[in-house]
């Protein structure tokens, strides 16, 4: 039986958001009930859902509801305070946790390590909302690491691309980022990128910085289908390309000759699933470690009250040149 009610964000049509009531049941021994404090809107996959650019049968993250394309309750990065805890959950009332749960002000969730994790004392709730996207970026770099002295290129400076560039830059001799928006390029330079260019300029800059070799590793995190073609064209001999983007139902046409075959390039798909030696728990710990080292305060463009969630999505959709991270704030 429900012991409370809540409100949750539902995608009900292209660019249409509703806040719907949802019952909240008391936690079972292995569950916790969380009152949300912050959640982050993903400008990548979540905006594909918002715009209706998904296919029936596409995989949903855990704890989502409904179906693609609509209606669906979709999301995966909500932070909050534990207000009730089952005796076998391993959590206590008052702890702050990151959850893989859609945007909802109160909810009960199974306390599995891949769904719920404690927020470290040194990480505030707004920063903690970046955990999942940081883990996605980290997974891309783990799939194809940048070796010391190599040239890395990152297409797209949304949150995933920006974190990917910052992580790759810990080893790379030069990191080049590619984005069509000036503010994102400027922020990437602030965070340590060697060069930040518009898409049409990337080839000349990469070959200049790499002394004609091309990029050793290219991460495609823009979600723009033409970027994968550009990645093939700028990669060095035996270079590696990591496709982090999810393209939804957009076609991705490629011209493979001559670069792809003659340069013996490799394209790796990256998805935040378990790898050898890097299971979900370990990547979560590493991602929180990165968030403690790499401030994301400048990546938060706006805070919007949960009640105005529809306005937040419209803002992200309408003004990507000025909006990077949009955080929903929940009432105390």
From TrEMBL:
<keyword id="KW-0479">Metal-binding</keyword>
<dbReference type="InterPro" id="IPR036291">
    <property type="entry name" value="NAD(P)-bd_dom_sf"/>
</dbReference>
<keyword id="KW-0560">Oxidoreductase</keyword>
<keyword id="KW-0862">Zinc</keyword>
<comment type="similarity">
    <text>Belongs to the zinc-containing alcohol dehydrogenase family.</text>
</comment>
<dbReference type="Pfam" id="PF00107">
    <property type="entry name" value="ADH_zinc_N"/>
</dbReference>
<protein>
    <submittedName>
        <fullName>Zinc-binding alcohol dehydrogenase</fullName>
    </submittedName>
</protein>
<dbReference type="InterPro" id="IPR011032">
    <property type="entry name" value="GroES-like_sf"/>
</dbReference>
<feature type="domain" description="Alcohol dehydrogenase-like C-terminal">
    <location>
        <begin position="160"/>
        <end position="280"/>
    </location>
</feature>
<dbReference type="InterPro" id="IPR013149">
    <property type="entry name" value="ADH-like_C"/>
</dbReference>
């Amino acid at each position: 039986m429900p012991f409370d009610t809540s409100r949750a964000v539902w995608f009900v049509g292209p660019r249409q958001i509703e806040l719907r009531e949802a019952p909240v049941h008391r936690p079972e021994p292995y569950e916790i009930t969380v009152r949300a404090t912050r959640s982050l809107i993903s400008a990548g996959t979540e905006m594909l859902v918002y715009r209706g650019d998904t296919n029936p049968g596409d995989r949903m993250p855990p704890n989502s509801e409904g179906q693609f394309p609509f209606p669906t309750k979709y999301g995966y990065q909500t932070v909050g305070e534990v207000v009730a805890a089952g005796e076998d959950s391993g959590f206590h009332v008052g702890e702050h946790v990151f959850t893989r749960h859609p945007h909802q002000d109160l909810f009960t969730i199974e306390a599995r390590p891949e769904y719920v994790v404690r927020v470290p004392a040194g990480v505030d709730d707004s920063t903690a909302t970046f955990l999942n996207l940081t883990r996605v970026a980290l997974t891309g770099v783990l799939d194809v690491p940048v070796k010391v002295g190599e040239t890395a290129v990152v297409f797209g400076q949304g949150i995933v691309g920006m974190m990917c560039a910052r992580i790759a830059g810990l080893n790379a001799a030069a990191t080049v980022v590619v984005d069509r928006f000036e503010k994102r390029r400027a922020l990437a330079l602030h965070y340590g990128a060697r060069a930040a260019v518009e898409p049409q300029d990337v080839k000349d800059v990469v070959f200049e910085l790499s002394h004609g070799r091309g990029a050793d590793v290219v991460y495609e995190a823009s979600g723009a289908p033409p970027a994968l073609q550009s990645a093939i064209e700028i990669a060095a001999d035996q270079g590696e390309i990591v496709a982090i983007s999810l393209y939804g139902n957009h076609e991705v046409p490629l011209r493979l000759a001559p670069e792809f075959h003659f340069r013996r390039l490799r394209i790796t798909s990256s998805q935040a699933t378990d790898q050898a030696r890097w299971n979900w728990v370990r990547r979560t710990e590493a991602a929180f470690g990165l968030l403690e080292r790499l401030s994301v305060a400048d990546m938060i463009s706006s805070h919007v009250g949960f009640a105005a969630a529809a306005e937040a999505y419209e803002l992200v959709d309408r003004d990507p040149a000025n909006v990077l991270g949009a955080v929903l704030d929940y009432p105390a």
